[in-house]
Amino acid sequence: MIIRFMPPRLVALLSLLASAPVPAQTPQLPPLSFLGFEAGASLSAVGSQVAVLGGRRLRCKHAISDRSVIECRAAVVDPASRRVVDLWLSAMDSSTGVLTLSSPLSGVELDNWRSGLEAAFGTVDANVQGPQWMLQWVRSGRMLRLTWRIERGERVASVSLVDGWVLDGWGRRREAEPVKPVKPAKPAHRASVTPPPAPAATP
């Protein structure tokens, strides 16, 4: 499964939000983004932002089961903390469906991530699931989620950007694709063995 960070219920929620009409009176809100990366961005836009943040080009490969799905990785530098941040994304037809940025952080650095997101997108309640804390914003079929937890005495945080429109379109195409029949395995070919000639009779 390529989309590692998407429980089925969340995929269904984002698909529903993506298909819901937006009221005309809704004010234009800034797109959900973090460190210059937006949900649903093209691979070229992501690659350009990676370069802006001091990273090398994206390392990408196609999924074996679906050639329209591409997984990419890179490392960038947070301009505020100078921390190296790992980037992973899954794109469908060159549009980012899921993008995650993760790094170990100090308490001050985590507060900076959180306060920056709340200043941009509003204050939300934290959800606690065992050792993991989570803040989540959903807007116009897209989602941004900040999570953090303690791993081996170290605080690890991640920001995930998810585009429900991209995932919904990909899912519809997958459902419309004809099911390819499974070809039966060919029986193993056995080489014919010619028995050796019988020994000549002794006179």
Task: Provide an overview of this structure.
The protein is built from 4 helices and 10 strands, in the order αββαββββαββββα. It is α+β, with helices and mostly antiparallel strands and 203 residues long. Helix content is 25%, strand content 33%. The chain has helices at residues 8-19, 43-52, 107-121, 164-176; strands at 33-34, 37-38, 59-62, 69-77, 84-92, 95-104, 127-129, 132-139, 142-151, 154-163. The radius of gyration is 25 Å and the shape is globular. The protein has one domain (13-18, 30-172).
Helix and strand arrangement:
Elements (H helix, E strand, L loop, with lengths): L7 H12 L13 E2 L2 E2 L4 H10 L6 E4 L6 E9 L6 E9 L2 E10 L2 H15 L5 E3 L2 E8 L2 E10 L2 E10 H13 L27
Antiparallel strand pairs: 1-2, 3-4, 4-5, 5-6, 6-10, 7-8, 8-9, 9-10
Helix pairs in contact: 1-4
Summarize the structure.
With 203 residues, this protein is α+β, with helices and mostly antiparallel strands.
